[in-house]
Design goal:
The chain is α/β, with parallel strands linked by helices. Helix content is 48%, strand content 12%. α21 packs antiparallel against α23, α28 runs parallel beside α29 and α28 runs antiparallel to α30.
Length: 942
């Protein structure tokens, strides 16, 4: 209180208040109904002081306020601000927010789909658009003061992450960078890199959520807290979270219940459904059904909720299950408002298309307050779901994980059905980072006192593992940066090869690699000091003991090699002798638990080498089934036969012999002892060791005996030091190879790309050829293939629809590879052109192999996928939506997304194609017009 201040303190406080009122931050704070958090204030002050900032904070904590302050500063200073996002949906959302605040005239939008007021002082765009502007030297960059990179942790994305680093490296020095990231464990490392490439950058990290998050497990009818808060441990008054003992006890009990999968009913295996019913009857808990979960959350006041299901089909099925269960979450007024909003947003879609898109079923679910949200939905439908959810008119959303990627759709609760998802290659546990991202949606700032994350009980659930996911709040940011062909020609064109190489070495990827080398380098330095000490210890006054030790080591290595060869040869001879055995052979097992006389019942040959007998299928050589003289029937392995085995005699095995019958075994074993018990097996004659006649060994032994150090009294003492020296030297060399592998890795890849482009005449030293200039305008995964197709005239003479079909192969990638069925292709010129594209790709693939550029390392051209060619051709040929979707067997959302990507690349081709004696540019523009109709043209922006 002011009365407690001295006059001097009161004066100082008044001056501080006046100084704060004079800042740009003061009027900005008044724009918000709530007070700013300390981390937001700290970041805004750093921005106003002229510094770049990296803000790492949890999902929903309000990081974007810092980005909005950069917009505020740009407008105050009469400069531009570009606000970049990783996905178009987030760009559209941020554009709408900024238009609401600043008006249409001051805000623009640039994505692959939309271009609205691109010369405005504030432009929202996807990161790829800004990258392309930088390489093209766009005039729009003039006057740029600030760039906000929302969700900058995307740079670890292995498909698109390189774009973020390209932008950060190539932005003009005069631009202040605002980087907004999820909480990552190496924010300081990332900040150090930004400081290196962008200048003074302040790192602000906040790990506290604005709305507390409670973690639960829903099992049967009971909701368990995941953690039990414990306080005052050891009198420290501290608080720590322990896993709920009730949940641990439940997991132990339920996971220890065993069910015999070989229960038989009427002689047949019990069906899985029957076993599941038995389990449920015998178990006290179960995994609640989807409608059951929503009803439970509704009863406890935990709606609205987002349920994450890692499957599009699962999301749609969940909505249907809720409808069939009669679930209704909206009253009559809510239903009326939903219908009004939906009809307004979809008014431009023709009725015949609405029927194809499943509009009426979708609307019925929305009126009940239930919806799905995934990438297979029409973008307009997804946007309507988002709007209704934010308005509280949709209370239960079943979504794939793509919803967690930045879209502003907070909920009171988040439900996770499983902790395993398909990652494109296999079913894998979700990572702590993914868990944090998903559950970060729970808890609406300014609305909810607390958020709730609910994991559904599944058999085998480990509460300790779940606690680890929930307790790991951060994850490391790893660069996925790799040079590309387009990047290489653009860099060489602007900076030349040498400067381009230097620029690439400033990437975060190389920064991280170099940092990892520091610790290894220190170990190498320490090892080298140790080597000096060992070298002194093995010094001999009679001669060069290092040379003498090398001779001894060479002798030992040679003897080991010969011994290994001899052992391999003996194993091969033993295996060959086993393959010659037949049923009825009497043998002597030389070693092992069953050594002694035995009768071969089955030679146990590997599949395909049965000598006319039914072999035991194995892949480790013959495994004969024998009857021992002690009446045991055993299958032996190659380890029981270290030396070749020969048949001592032969016996007839009775047709009635049953190896499971003790009487049969006793009778046949008795006959075996009578027949061959008196036979003494020949002892295996050991061959002369190969080392005895080896010239190399003889030479080394002669040199060792003749060496001066051989006569040293302290020879063995020196030898011990020499062995330590050798081991440490070997370890040091391995470390040095690791350093070499990590140093200049990006630059070496760039050198190989440049060499390949030089071979193809895209580059000549520091000059970019005309073909190279064309490649510089083609962005995408198959940039070089597209450029080669233009150069070779593959697309000349194609109609717009045929060109659309061919270009689709450059962008489309099937969600699941299906090599069994050849895709349907347009006939005529388009089919021939697609075949030529595949042939050119094969040539490029061989060339990449020659220049050691591998797709597994993220560099190179994947094979073009022809799976969307027919759909693109049909749509560009003005076919109806119903027909196209039915033949493509593809959800509307996927169809629209692929069409828009084809349109994007067609635009690039129109700009890059030759102007003279070519029809490609004109037909590419016509193809864009043909594709941009109906559902593809619908957009909520502009």
């Amino acid at each position: 209180m002011t009365e407690d201040f001295t006059p001097a303190e009161a004066y100082a406080a008044a001056r501080a208040r006046n100084a704060e009122q004079a800042t740009a931050l003061a009027p900005f704070r008044e724009m918000y109904e709530f007070g700013l958090d300390p981390f937001q204030i700290e970041a805004c002050k750093a921005l106003e002081a002229g510094k770049g900032v990296l803000v790492a904070a949890p999902t929903g904590s309000g990081k974007t306020i810092v980005g909005e302050f950069a917009v505020h500063l740009a407008l105050l200073q009469g400069r531009k601000c570009f606000y970049t996002t990783p996905i178009k949906a987030l760009s559209n959302q941020k554009y709408a927010d900024l238009v609401k605040r600043y008006g249409n005239d001051k805000v623009g939008l640039l994505t692959g789909d939309n271009s609205v007021n691109g010369d405005a002082p504030i432009v929202v765009m996807t990161t790829e658009v800004l990258r392309n502007m930088l390489y093209a030297g766009s005039r729009a960059l003039s006057g740029l003061g600030y760039v906000v990179m929302d969700e900058v942790h995307y740079l670890s994305d292995r498909f698109r992450g390189a774009v973020w680093e390209e932008v950060i490296i190539h932005l003009p020095e005069s631009v202040t960078l605002v980087s907004l990231s999820a909480t990552v464990s190496n924010a300081e490392e990332f900040g150090d890199w930004l400081d290196t490439v962008r200048g003074d950058t302040q790192v602000i990290v906040s790990e506290s959520r604005p709305v507390p998050l409670w973690q639960h497990v829903l099992a049967g009818r009971r909701m368990y807290d995941l953690f039990e808060e414990e306080t005052d441990h050891g009198g420290r008054g501290a608080s720590r979270r322990e896993v709920n003992p009730d949940l641990l006890r439940l997991a132990r009990t339920e996971n220890s219940r065993t069910y015999n999968p070989r229960d038989r009913r009427r002689g047949k295996m019990v069906r899985e459904a029957d076993r599941e019913r038995e389990r449920r009857q015998r178990s006290r808990i179960w995994t609640p059904g989807r409608p059951e979960v929503i009803e439970r959350l509704d009863a406890e006041g935990l709606l609205p909720a987002i349920t994450f299901i890692f499957s599009r089909a699962g999301c749609e099925a969940a909505v249907q299950q809720c409808l069939y269960a009669g679930l209704r979450l909206n009253d009559e007024d809510g239903r009326r408002r939903v219908r009004e909003i939906v009809e307004e947003r979809t008014a431009s879609i023709p009725n015949e298309d609405l029927h194809v898109l499943g509009y009426y079923e979708w609307l019925e679910a929305l009126e009940r307050g239930i919806a799905a949200h995934h990438a297979g939905m029409l973008p307009t439908f997804k946007e309507v779901v988002e709007e209704l959810f934010v308005r509280g008119l949709v209370k239960a959303v079943f979504a794939t994980e793509t919803l967690a990627l930045g879209i502003n759709m907070p909920a009171r609760s988040v439900v996770l059905e499983k902790l395993v998802k398909w990652n494109g290659e296999q079913h894998a546990d979700i990572t702590p980072g993914e868990y944090t991202q998903l559950t970060g949606r729970a808890g609406r700032r300014g609305i909810d006192v607390e958020g709730h994350a609910v994991v559904l009980w599944q058999r085998g659930l480990d509460p300790g593992h779940l606690a680890g996911l929930a307790g790991t709040r951060t994850y490391p940011l790893r660069s996925s940066f790799k040079p590309s062909y387009n990047m290489a020609v653009n860099l060489v064109d602007q900076f030349g090869r040498h400067r381009s190489r230097e620029l690439l070495e400033t990437s975060f990827a190389q920064f991280q690699a170099d940092r990892s080398v520091v610790g290894i380098s220190k170990q190498v330095q320490k090892n080298e000091e140790g080597l000096e000490g060992y070298r002194e210890g093995m010094t001999c006054h009679l001669g060069d003991f290092e040379e003498y030790a090398r001779l001894r080591r060479d002798l030992k290595d040679r003897e080991t090699d010969l011994a290994r060869q001899g052992a391999n040869q003996r194993r091969a001879e033993a295996a060959a002798s086993l393959e010659r055995l037949k049923p009825g052979d009497v043998i002597h097992v030389p070693t092992g638990k069953f050594a002694g006389l035995a009768l071969v019942l089955d030679p146990g040959l590997p599949a395909g080498r049965t000598n006319g007998h039914r072999g035991f299928e194995n892949h480790d050589g013959p495994r004969p089934l024998v009857l021992t003289a002690e009446r045991q029937v055993k299958r032996l392995a190659s380890i029981d036969f270290p030396v070749p085995v020969e048949a001592l005699d032969r016996m007839r095995i009775p047709r009635s012999f049953n190896p499971r019958s003790p009487q049969s075994r006793r009778d046949l074993a008795s006959a075996l002892r009578t027949k061959a018990g008196h036979v003494n097996p020949e002892r295996h004659q050991k061959k002369r060791a190969a080392a005895a006649d080896d010239r190399e060994i003889a030479r080394l032994r002669t040199e060792i005996r003749a060496h001066p150090c051989h006569g040293c009294d302290e020879r063995e003492d020196h030898a011990r030091w020499a062995e330590r020296f050798h081991r440490l030297q070997r370890d040091t060399q391995q470390l040095e190879r690791r350093i070499e592998g990590r140093t200049n890795t990006i630059a070496r890849t760039f050198d190989r790309i440049v060499a390949l482009l030089t071979e193809l005449d895209y580059l000549r030293d520091d000059d970019v050829t005309a073909d190279g200039k064309r490649l510089a305008r083609l962005y995408g995964e198959l940039d070089l293939l597209a450029s080669e197709c233009l150069r070779e005239g593959v697309w000349e003479g194609l109609s717009p629809a045929e060109l659309a079909a061919c270009v689709s192969a450059l962008v489309f990638e099937a969600r699941q590879a299906d090599d069994a069925v050849a895709p349907k292709l347009p006939a005529g010129k388009a089919k021939a052109a697609l075949g030529e594209m595949v042939r050119i790709w094969g040539r490029l693939d061989s060339l990449e192999e020659e220049f050691k550029l591998h797709q597994a390392e993220g560099v190179g051209q994947r094979e073009p996928d022809l799976g969307f060619a027919w759909a693109a051709f049909q749509w560009a040929s003005d076919k109806g939506l119903d027909e196209v979707l039915r033949e493509a067997e593809m959800p509307a959302g996927d169809f629209v997304r692929w069409c828009k990507q084809v349109i994007d690349v067609l635009g690039q081709i129109a700009a890059a194609a030759p102007r003279e004696n070519s029809t490609v540019a004109k037909n590419a523009r016509k193809a864009v017009d043909s594709l941009l109709r109906g559902v593809v043209a619908y957009s909520s922006v502009g």
